Amino acid sequence: MSPFDKHKPTDNDMFKVIFDHSPSALIVTDHNFLIVRANSKAINILGRCINPSDYFLSLFNQSSKEKIEHLFNATNKSELRSIDVKLSNYDIDKWLELVASNHHHKTNLIIWSLNDITERRAREKELEQLAYFDSLTGIYSRQYFLQLAEIQLKQHQREDKTLCILMLDIDDFKLVNDSHGHSTGDLVLQAFSTLISQTLRKSDLFGRIGGEEFAVLLPYTQQQDAVLTATRICHKVEECFMRHNVTVSIGLVAIENTNMSVKDALACADHALYQVKQTGKNSVQVAELNAYECKSDKTLK
Asked: Over the stretch 134-169, which tens digit does the pLDDT of each residue have?
C-alpha cells in the first residue's frame, strides 16, 4: 500500500484517479509546503522516496527555495508563473520547471507540476559558454570582452578614474606551429591563458581577441602600476615557456579624461604593440593619447 493511500488530498475520487494517472509529474502540498500527495511520475523524476508531510521545499537548493517562497508570497497563489529550480543532493545539476495552481474543492491545496529541464539547461549552458568564452582557452571571447570592457570604461569615465588596457601578442607564434605542430600550439595558447589569468587580479578582464592576440583591462589602475603588471607578464612568459622559446610583446594605453571607446583604446594599444614588434619584441611599450591619436613613448624592458 502506498503511503499516500493513508492521506486523502480530496474527497473527489475522480480527482485522485486523474492525478495518479496523469502524464504530468504532480505533487500536492498545503500552503505550508507540506506534501499531501505525489504521483508516480513525480517520484520517477525526483528519483527519491516521497512521503506525506515531507517538506516540499527540502527538495531544492537554497536559492531555489528562496525563489519559490518569494514568488509564492508575492503573487496571486492561483496564478504562480513557471520558474526554473534546481534540486538538491544530486551528483549532477538537475533542474525542474515548476508551475503551481490552486485546487478549490472543499480544500485549499497547491498542485505543483514538475517538468525535467536538465538537458535544456545543459544545452543553454553550452551555448552560453560559446557566446561568452573562447572555446580553446576558456577566457572571455572577443565580443564578450569588448562588451564588459565598454561597461567598465563608461563607469570609469563617470567616476573620473583611470584604467589601463594591454594588448598582448605571442611573439613568432607561427614558428611554434611550424616547428611543433598545431596541437602543441593549442597547448601553448591554453597554458599561456592560464598563466596570465593567474597573474592578474580577479577584477581584471582578460580576453582572446583573435589567434595569438589577447587583451587585458586593468580597472582603477594608474599607468605606472600597469607597466609593472605588463613587465611581470613578460618575465613570467619567458620563464615558463623557455622550452618552446615563447615570449610576449605588450602595448599599453592608460585612459583618463577621455570619451574614447574601447575599440579606439585597443587600436591605440595595438599601435604601441606594433612598435614593440619593430624594436625587438618581448617588452612593453606605452602609447600616449592625444586627441585620439597614438604617440609612442619609450620602450620599457
From this structure: 989 999 999 999 999 999 999 999 999 999 999 999
Range in 62-71, 131-140, 154-163, 208-217 the model is least confident about: 62-71
Whether residue 66 lies in the annotated active site: no
| Among candidate residues 11, 37, 15, 17, the one with its CA nearest the CA of residue 26 | 37
| Predicted pLDDT at 254 | 94
Q: Which of 69, 97, 124, 212 is catalytic?
A: 212
Q: 133-300 — its CATH code?
A: 3.30.70.270
Q: Which of 284, 11, 51, 290 is nearest to 166 (CA)?
A: 284
Spatial CA neighbour of 209 closest among 273, 157, 260, 296 = 273
Give the residue extent of every domain in the chain: 3-121, 133-300
C-alpha grid cell, residue 85: 529550480
CATH topology of domain 3-121: Beta-Lactamase (3.30.450)
Instruction: Say if residue 267's pLDDT is above 50.
Output: yes
246-271 burial, b at 16+ Cβ within 10 Å, e below that, comes to: bbbbbbbbbbeeeebebebbbbbbbb
pTM confidence score: 0.63
Q: Which of 167, 166, 171 is nearest to 280 (CA)?
A: 171
